[in-house]
Amino acid sequence: PAEGFAASRKMQVAATLRWVITAQGLVQRSRDSGQTWKSTSLDPHIKFRAVAAAGAEVWAGGEGGALYHSSDSGDPWTRVAMPAELASATIVRVEFTDAAHGTLATSAGETWATSDGGAAVVNQCGCPDGTGNLSKAMNDLPYHYGPQPAPAGYRAGPPTSDDRQFPQDVL
To answer: Which residues, other chains included, contact 169 with Cβ-Cβ below 8 Å and sequence gap of 6+?
Structure first.
């Protein structure tokens, strides 16, 4: 009974919470469906670029590969240890469907995924050279995105409107 009440209360609070990133890169929370906003207690030296919530589970990502998580609607936050490859990345998109399953996107076009709440984050590259650059294959024509030259068998991306094999809604 007491546990049921606590879970019910968490769901009620999560239903009224709203999250935004300010132009200055601060994460703000509204507890009244957007009527008023207050900055969170996250590291003020990090410029945040993305925030996502799935109920009381909240994730915020930003410069320097910073990813923070709260399992209690932003009270408190814990920094998630990220792979060394993300140390200089800027996380620009965070999407979580629950506490365990999510994806991150960086300003360099990389996509990373986790199925254990961030304990292990895996690059969704698929590149045969293991560079960690995002590649995408459609119609068996792989494209390579990133700062390094395309590996053998890959075309430099992104695709253009001249690539007739790609559906127009992907361009």
So the answer is: none
Q: What residue has token string 């995105």?
A: 145
Where the chain has pLDDT below 50, the residues are: 5, 8-13, 126-145, 159-171
Whether 158 contacts 143, CB under 8 Å: yes
Whole-model pTM: value is 0.66
Could you give the C-alpha distances from 171 to 87, 103, 108, 141, in angstroms and in order? 30, 22, 18, 14
For residues 80 and 118, the answer to whether their CB atoms sit within 8 Å is yes
Give the span between the Cα atoms of 111 and 105, in whole angstroms: 4
Check residue 103 and give its pLDDT.
92
Each residue's pLDDT tens digit, 51-80: 999 888 999 999 999 999 999 998 899 999
User: What residues have CB less than 8 Å from 122, skipping those under 6 apart?
Assistant: 112, 113, 114
In whole angstroms, give the CA distance from residue 125 to residue 127: 5
